[in-house]
Amino acid sequence: MEANHGANMPSKPTTPTPTTELRRRAREHITDGAVTANYQGDVTAAVALLNDALATELVCVLRYKFQYVTARGIHSEGVKAEFLAHAQEEQAHADRLAARINQLGGKPDMNPSSLAGRSATEYVENDTIVAMIKENLVAERIAVETYRALIRHFADHDPTTRRLLEDILANEEEHASDMQDLLARVAEERCP
What we know:
Blueprint: H1 19-28, H2 43-70, H3 76-103, H4 112-118, H5 129-154, H6 159-190
Helix pairs in contact: 2-3, 2-4, 2-5, 3-6, 5-6
């Protein structure tokens, strides 16, 4: 049977880099850490985007912690517990983002003086549980949209960062749902 070498044939897959070449490059660029020659993203842009996401998470931690401490009312204990759990989860997101920034050779920017300016969400202090829950729901919706955009940005150029962001997005969607449920529950309790 004769092989067809026509234009409709798929192109030959590229051959992997020979092991000796991989070893040479790994030794030559040892100070680059996890960023290798085949990293397809822009490291500087990736670090900047992840630092903005880090700022957003840290602002959310502070808002949830403030609310955990200051929420008052007859039904506040359950809501406070939810605020504390969310603060802890947002802190875990921040820790994971900071670690990824470090893996990419960047420096996690946790400077308090610039957090609010780099955060997609706002730090708003409210006096009532309903206002706190509403502010959190707004913030979670912003986070969901932000992470979806970041996931599209990283796409296949940085699959490790994309998977990290997908994990965080799933948790942020859960947070938004939790706040929506809390808002409905508090509204029901206020209107018998």
